[in-house]
Amino acid sequence: MAAPTHATDLRASLTQDIEATQKSGQEARNQLNTNRNQLQAVATRADELHKTTQRLEQDLKNNEDVAERLRAELKKTKAAKEVGDQNAGTYKAQIKKGEFLVNSLGLRVNTLKDLHKNLASFEDEGYEIVRKSKRTAETAGLGVPSGPAKRLPTQANGPGSNAMQKPPVNIKLPGSKTSQSASPSQEDDDDNAPLKSLIRKDRNKDQSSSCR
What gap in Å lies between CA 64 and CA 180, rounded to an integer? Predict the structure, then answer.
């Protein structure tokens, strides 16, 4: 029963990894939204500066007497606009990185979910192997004599025959593969083929002895 326990522990670890990854993805999304808001603020400020520049240029044309002061103000405004453009480029690059990180984390979450599903399937297979191994061990415990084969009890026909019947024994080795799924009756027939062979040999031997 060690395999199912290990599978359970591994599934719990994968569940924690999925939760941590989802949390990191949410944090990345929050940071992405923050960068977008900052970019919008920078864009708004740049638009305001652009409008101010246009207004100052118009004032410069209409007021030659204050041209020198307006030129100085215009220079400061253009410098601020350049800084705003640089900040906008920085935030755009951060947004691209954030989008890539969110996509990567989303793919990892999907991968971990697939691993979680596969782990559940492996756990079921582990239980099936343990069940078959236990059934094989019980079959081996019946004990077949190594000397001349003795006649095994057969099922009788008629009243009370159910008392002599035993449940079918599956002696298939664990992990054996079948080409297709069979019904319970077909599976029992395949599993009991070696035992039926022994019974047929025993019957033939008894018949030959009676003829002598």
Answer: 96
Tokens representing 166 are: 């035993």
Give the Cα separation of 126 and 133 in Å (integer).
10
At residue 37, the pLDDT reads 92
Q: How far is it, in rounded angstroms, from Cα 28 to Cα 96?
A: 12
Query: Can you give the pLDDT at residue 102?
Result: 87
Phi/psi-derived region of residue 160, left when phi > 0, alpha when psi is between -120 and 50, beta in every other case: left
Say which amino acid occupies 39.
Answer: L
- What does the pLDDT read at residue 105? 86
For the chain, domain boundaries? 2-140
pLDDT at 188: 45
What pLDDT does residue 208 have? 54
**192 three-state secondary structure:** coil
Judge contact between 95 and 36, C-beta under 8 A. yes
Q: Which tokens in the block code for residue 69?
A: 């002061």
Q: Which CATH architecture has domain 2-140?
A: Orthogonal Bundle (1.10)
Cα-Cα-Cα-Cα dihedral sign, residues 73, 78, 81, 87: negative
CB-CB neighbours of 98 under 10 Å: 19
CA 47, CA 88: separation in Å to the nearest integer? 12
From the first residue on, what is the mean pLDDT of each consecutive set of 10 residues in the chain (212 residues)?
65 87 90 91 90 82 73 85 86 87 87 84 81 81 46 42 43 44 45 53 54 48
> What count of other Cβ atoms lies within 10 Å of the Cβ of residue 105?
19
